[in-house]
Amino acid sequence: MTSAPTPAPTPLDLAGIGIGPFNLSLAALAHKLTGLRTAFYEQRPAFHWHPGLMIEGTTLQVPFLADLVTLADPTSPWTFLNYLKAHERLFPFYFAEQFHIRRAEYDAYCRWVSEQLPGLHFSHRIDAVRWNPHHALFELDYTRLTPDGQTPGPGRAHARNLVLGVGSAPYVPAPLRPLASAPDIPVIHSADYLDHRARLLAARHVTVIGSGQSGAEVFLDLLRHRPAGRERLHWLARTPAFAPMEYSKLGLEQFTPDYTRYFHALPETVRDQLLPRQWQLYKGIDQDTIAAIHEELYQRTLHGGWPDAVLTPGVTVHAATSTSDGRLELHLSHREQGNHDRLATDAVVLATGYRERPIDALLAALDPHIRRDHSRRPRIDEHHRLVLGPAITGSIYVQNAERHTHGVGTPDLGLAAWRSAVILNSLTGHTTPSHAEEPAARPGNPPTQHSLSTPQRRPGPRPGTPPFPLPTRTAFTSFGLRPRHGETPLPDQRDRRARTRT
């Protein structure tokens, strides 16, 4: 007697793994699509955004309009302005005239959204992801976590599509990993700065490594709270200078959808060569922070003498050891001078940035289906979707894991809402065509639907108004010689087109 087939589970249309700002943005925009079944899972017990760097007075490096939703849907109930209205703070904000809000305020805003938005499951750790070919669904195995470390039991969710927003992890350079992993040695990443701040302020000598915004903020905070003339601080960086972040109006257009599309269309080798040259777009320092550091140093010269603070760019740390007297010794080289030296210090703060969390372990069961580039990185299409083999009919979208394909704007909060809208338009079968791709007429398609009630191949463009209409042009700069849809052709191109028509 043949047993009856197992009935198909009721699936989600979209399951999100990770609840950081980017997946929270996606969840907030998806909320109005009432026919779309979504759920998002996060192993932390609640939303927190870089808690170790909530140094008093620090601000976002993007305007408040770069909230979770505004640049895709300014009428959403989840805007930052609506958060202010809900807390009766609109008029104080209006009179404060602050375009760049405090980092702590952004964290509080995101937490407000996360506490009200349905479908968010904190304290849920995703352990494995598989594809079920019989039901054409992804299976997600998860473990529920409790504050006391107990695990009430495993669970399983099913979804037609996934979105990975697992974020980035603090990066520790190889020469410093042995010391950073030792529990009693004061080598800490800036992500944990506030947890160790008292210990660092009490240390006889502190070295900060890293020339970006985090390094500058940590150095400034230490400088402000150590006695004049006995600062005993070193600030080292590999970059050739402590340089300001690119913040000119046209320079910022490299954080637009126009530039993202341009970058994605470049050959892989060109993209790989271009990214390191763009370090000042995302590794520089806010000009106000640079000015505050200089002012603090200058104030300490008013009564004669110089502060005991050394700022040296162009330096590489090759090795680090713990000495017999309990101090740390850094082995340094200077790229331009070509010489070497050693620095004795009592504590090190690594402001060495973050790296995208690898997704290979999470997607190990799907690895044979993931298409990769020449460097074995996942290929990601223009809709932020992993390129998969034909056996997988669902889509896997990624957020902040595609710098190698989408460029420096990938981790930028200013593109969060736009990317979320691109993903949701793609998910519901409404993709924005590129300049070379016009939407094909497909008679017989139903009107716009926001529910994926039947399994389907990763959708292509279809007519109808997308849930989030996006602008065809977002920058005055034309990236490349061939204009994209919505751009003004160069004069010679206009002449050629006119001659062609006649």
Poorly predicted parts: 433-461, 496-502
Biggest sheet statistics: 5 strands, parallel
- The termini sit apart by 75 Å
Helix content class: 25-40%
Mean residue pLDDT: 89
Kindly report the spatial arrangement of strands forming the biggest sheet: 3-2-1-7-18
> Count the strands?
18
Which quaternary structure do these chains form? Answer: single chain
Structural class by helix and strand composition: alpha/beta
| Number of discrete helical segments | 14
Give the DSSP E fraction (strand runs of 2 or more residues): 15-25%
Task: Choose one word for the global shape.
Answer: globular
Radius of gyration: 25 Å
Description:
- The protein has about 500 residues and is an alpha/beta fold.
- The protein is about 25% helix and about 15% strand.
- It has 14 helices and 18 strands.
- It has helices at about 20-30, 80-85, 90-95, 105-115, 175-180, 195-200, 215-225, 255-265, 270-275, 280, 285-300, 405, 415-425, 490-500; strands at about 15, 40, 120, 125-130, 135-145, 155-160, 160-165, 170, 185-190, 205-210, 235, 310, 315-320, 330-335, 340-345, 345-350, 355, 395-400.
- Strand 4 (about 125-130) and strand 5 form a beta hairpin.
- Helix 1 packs across helix 13 (about 415-425) and helix 7 runs parallel beside helix 11.
- It is globular and about 75 Å long.
- The chain starts with 13 loop residues before the first strand and ends with a helix.
